[in-house]
Design a protein that fits this description.
The chain is an all-alpha fold. The chain has 20 helices and 2 strands. The chain is globular and about 85 Å long.
Length: 499
């Protein structure tokens, strides 16, 4: 989530975060008070290690004192130490370092223990967990990558030169290798704009889409085990809740990474001005963008993604053990499953339809050949078809409470865009409302027109469903659809706010 954007808006709206319901208000207030340099690598890296250890325990049945767990911990500490030592030697972050190997090569130790798991240990590298059916390789890189060796060579090679100009010629020869495999580079400033989905933290391999799919499947596998497991005598309900939240966070991190492909562009630093080679900016191929959208439909918006057993949900009591890095849950005591699911789905929806992303989709029409860009219309069509599936012919099933929540959030997103609701930031009272208000601020006019068009289309589809299937609907589903129809009608009849 682009916290820098939230910081900027919150700093210009003092007190807004404090008005939001906990814990969101506390978190957002903190964003305005914590210096940027204190958003550290350590906490998120520890979460990666935590999920890896949980996977070893629940999937591989490794004991904490087992040899495989020791290998895992050793590799993690080795990588973490190499990263920080790199900083002491003057190396900056390189968030392209993780894209060196193909997914098939990630678990080939003949490659990873010689060439490296990543091109640079200066990336924020996630745990490498093999998907089901593939033998596990290294969890973290055990050697420095080719980029690390190359940049150390540039910075520390003794050069026998009499003048700075002579030294510069030697340095340029070293720098000229930058287009070679494994030496690509993108540092912090190249990631703040979220334009390049393959220059970011916590991704892995030259095909991050496939890697994220593997990891979401790994997360679902652990969820399945949690669904069917019971606490051991020495375990507490707090332990189970902690595991559940760890998997939830890991799953969400990989789902939100998919949104970056929509309207994304690759930013290349190796451009030399010639007619051959890469340009500084190259749009992400439309096939990849469609693949990312399809994956979001399957993993984030599907009806069965967040189906958990009552047995599991009723065991998720908070712990009362506190320490550094832990947050004490005061209320609610029971697990707020609807709020958690709606929050992550709203964040993904908001990011998909953010004003910046929609503007890039608009600009992409001029930056790609005809028919090779994902259009705003296709984005709206695909997401609406994924979230609002209305059947007027077959037997209609009740709309689940989670589904109703997702449909309302999508509808709220369209409403904010359609009405140019510039006051929504001031009127937001929940974290999801706040997210929608931020992301739809300054929406391009083409998107506003599309939002009204999709609302009208949705109202007609709901009316048709109610006309043909209304008598077969349960009360909650009927009330939901009638409420949605009436709300859309009111919105379409309302006057637009001035720009």
């Amino acid at each position: 989530v682009p916290y820098l954007k939230w910081q900027e808006i919150l700093k210009s709206n003092p007190g807004k975060a404090a008005e939001l319901n906990l814990p969101a208000g506390q978190f957002l207030t903190g964003l305005t008070q914590v210096p940027d340099h204190e958003f550290c690598f350590a906490m998120a890296s520890a979460q990666q290690a935590k999920f890896g250890a949980l996977s070893l325990s629940m999937v591989n049945h490794e004991l904490p004192s087992g040899e495989e767990m020791k290998t895992f911990i050793h590799q993690y500490l080795r990588y973490l130490t190499a990263h920080e030592v790199g900083h002491t030697l003057g190396l900056r972050h390189n968030f392209r370092g993780s894209t060196m190997l193909s997914p098939e090569e990630l678990n080939n130790t003949e490659i990873t223990r010689n060439k490296g798991l990543v091109g640079s240990v200066m990336d924020y590298v996630p745990v490498n967990l093999a998907p089901e059916g593939i033998e596990q390789g290294d969890y973290f890189s055990t050697v420095v990558g080719p980029y690390d060796k190359w940049v150390i060579k540039y910075g520390y090679t003794p050069i026998d030169a009499l003048t700075p100009q002579q030294e510069l010629r030697t340095l340029r020869k070293i720098a000229a290798q930058g287009s070679e495999m494994g030496l690509s580079y993108a540092t912090d400033e190249d990631t703040f704009d979220f334009i390049d989905p393959e220059a970011k933290v916590w991704d892995l391999s030259g095909d991050p889409l496939r890697y994220s799919q593997w990891q979401m499947e790994n997360a679902k596998a652990i969820w399945k085990r949690l669904n069917n497991s019971y606490l051991l005598p020495e375990e507490s309900a707090g332990d189970l809740r902690d595991r559940f939240d760890t998997v939830f966070s890991y799953f969400f991190d990989h789902a939100i990474s998919l949104t970056g492909y929509i309207g994304g562009q690759t930013f290349n630093r190796n451009y030399t001005g010639g007619k051959t080679g890469t340009l500084p900016f190259e749009p992400i191929p439309v096939e990849k963008q469609r693949q990312a959208l399809a994956m979001l439909g399957e993993y984030m918006f599907a009806e069965d993604t967040f189906n958990f057993s009552p047995q599991l949900l009723n065991q998720l009591a908070p712990s009362r053990w506190t320490h550094w890095g832990a947050f004490t849950t005061i209320f609610p005591l029971d697990y707020p499953i609807h709020d958690r699911v709606m929050l992550v789905q709203t964040i993904v929806l908001g990011d998909l339809f953010s004003s910046e992303r929609l503007a890039r989709l608009r600009d992409a029409q001029l930056k790609t050949s005809s028919g090779e860009a994902l259009t705003m219309a296709e984005l709206f069509d695909t997401v609406q078809d994924s979230i609002w599936k209305l059947d007027t012919k077959g037997k209609i099933e009740p709309i689940s409470s989670l589904r109703r929540g997702l449909q309302r959030q999508y509808m709220s997103l369209l409403v904010n865009m359609a009405l140019r609701n510039s006051n929504s930031l001031e009127t937001a009272r929940t974290f999801p409302e706040f997210i929608i208000a931020i992301q739809t601020f300054n929406t391009p006019e083409d998107a506003r027109v599309l939002a009204r068009y999709k609302l009208r289309q949705l109202r007609d589809a709901i009316a048709k469903t109610l006309n043909k299937q209304g008598k077969n609907l349960d009360t909650a589903s009927l009330a939901h659809l009638e409420g949605a129809r009436d709300r859309i009608t009111k919105v379409l009849d309302a006057p637009l706010q001035a720009e």
